[in-house]
Amino acid sequence: MTVKPLLLIPSLSLVLLLSACAGPMPKQDPAQAWIGLKEEGTSDLMAERVDGKNTRDGRYFEVTPGAHRLDVTLYEGATGDQNQVDCQGDVQYKAFKAGEHYQLIESSLGPEISAALVDSSGKEVAHTADFTCMPG
Predict the structure, then answer these.
(1) How far is Cα 36 from Cα 25, in angstroms, rounded to an integer?
(2) 134 has which bridge partners?
(3) What is the pTM for the complete model shown?
(4) C-alpha 89: how far from its chain's center?
(5) Quick check: 93 and 61 in contact, CB under 8 A?
(6) Which of the chain's termini has less CB crowding within 10 Å, N or C?
(7) Any idea where the domains of the chain sit in the sequence?
(8) Are the beta carbons of 131 and 91 closer than 8 angstroms?
(9) Which tens digits make up the pLDDT trace of 55-93?
């Protein structure tokens, strides 16, 4: 067996994993609140947990109306090399509404990284504390 087939298996696995993330976004459930994610520059903001439970898709949150805590991870300089920084943050909001579309928007000012939760009219309804960052 040559080295090339052995390298092909991990490469194919990576392609399949990335293609699953790049698939079309599902339709929004009108009985749920939808939270999209927006990051700056070369960073990737990923949905991690709702109320302590892992999300099924890191590209968005979908929650029942009411109060929820959303945990996110920001991969700064998301290249996967030693320069990448992984940052954790969370936002709590008590009044998610069914059918409403929210957006969690990351912003950074120097080393300080945070995110604002805005509703569909662009009004900020909640804000994270500064993210906690560690080298990736």
Answers:
(1) 10
(2) 86
(3) 0.77
(4) 10
(5) no
(6) N
(7) 30-135
(8) no
(9) 999 999 999 999 999 999 998 865 556 667 899 999 999
